[in-house]
Design goal:
The protein is an all-alpha fold and about 60 residues long. It contains one helix and no strands.
């Protein structure tokens, strides 16, 4: 697989995606305002998470 041409890998990836996901759909996500803070998700890289104590008020 590491030696395969990029175009071949892209073709296989799109075939797998088309076989496993409905066509013409987009996954929607909700974004929180930077000023809001207190996001319920626990993402270790995000300082807006309600799970992290930054010492700053939102």
């Amino acid at each position: 697989m590491l030696a395969a041409p990029v175009n071949d890998l892209l073709f296989v990836a799109q075939a797998i995606t088309r076989a496993n996901f409905p066509p013409n759909t987009v996954q929607k996500s909700q974004l929180l305002s930077i000023k809001t803070g207190g996001c319920p998700e626990d993402c270790g890289y995000c300082s807006q998470s309600a799970h992290h104590e930054t010492g700053l008020s939102a």
